[in-house]
Amino acid sequence: MASDSPKQHWSTAEEEIMEATYRALLKHGYADLSISRIADELDKSKAAIYYHYDTKDDLLVAFLEFAVDRFEETIETETGDEPPEDLEHVIEKLLPLQPDEEQRQLQAVLVGLRSQAVTNEVFREQFTQIDERLAATVRSIVERGIDDDTFRDVDPSRVAEHILATVNGAMYGRVTTDRKSAAAAARVSLASYIDSELRCRS
Amino acid sequence: MASDSPKQHWSTAEEEIMEATYRALLKHGYADLSISRIADELDKSKAAIYYHYDTKDDLLVAFLEFAVDRFEETIETETGDEPPEDLEHVIEKLLPLQPDEEQRQLQAVLVGLRSQAVTNEVFREQFTQIDERLAATVRSIVERGIDDDTFRDVDPSRVAEHILATVNGAMYGRVTTDRKSAAAAARVSLASYIDSELRCRS
To answer: Per its UniProt record, what SUPFAM superfamilies does this chain match (chains A, B) (predicted)?
Structure first.
């Protein structure tokens, strides 16, 4: 949808490994993840995983791509032709106003993985692609809104980067502090920004 | 200024250790920091450091507090009675539009330290305080602007959390991706938000 790159095709075996990785990450966190623990979730041997991925880092980089593929597929299904509602929906998916336990753990896992990108080039390239794809998803909704006159003639790239930075920063704060209401406050202000800065009054 | 907590007083010896920690962090990064390397920068023995701080984590938590103390002192000196310019100044300090090498390295160090807060309670408490203090600094400028009628009657807490999340998220993206212009685009959009959403037109 938002990306020009060809859609990654995941084999059934790879998808099963990715699902097992997701469960293992939620259960053990990023720091305590091992191929053994993923194999336990998969109910197969470690060799079955190493047949597809040479190292744990290879597997985790693939997992991040899998997660973004899934995210884009969901967004494609769940958004339609109402740019303001579609934008709100993407923001809620990225930064739930009231995250449940699974969403909280996933966010902690993502912050752990992203911290590797400070020093690890392969993780850095993957997070570069992730942010590119997420920004493109937001941008395409803003462009759609400008085309159908629900949004003003703003700069879609800048607005997309602003929204992505706010969402990433609020999520980052939620995972690394005990400030319970800060992320929700940022989201409410972001929604009011979208309402006042983007929406046309007809 | 922005915080109600009593100002931390740093002895000369502590300040020297903090300055040495800063230099060692810029030189070696967070991952390769050791008490030995800080002692080298200090030109004293490791014992001189352990006399003040029991562990490396104790020292790093103190360093974070020292950095925020310094930041607040600078802001107090460099801001005045022009809320829009003061706000722009704080944002530029937190997220330089064109960071130099030292600022880039410092941001990488801060992301490395913050990632510890996902699992380490002491770091988590410290980053909770840091974000509280930064949000309070932004909030007090917004409140000042509302009081002197340069800003509209917005919710200062929500706006402060929005600005802090955008700044943190853009900085986080800058350090963990190769997306060169994303942070600047977010900042330009944030400035336009402040201009259109906050400023009164008289």
So the answer is: Homeodomain-like (SSF46689), Tetracyclin repressor-like, C-terminal domain (SSF48498)
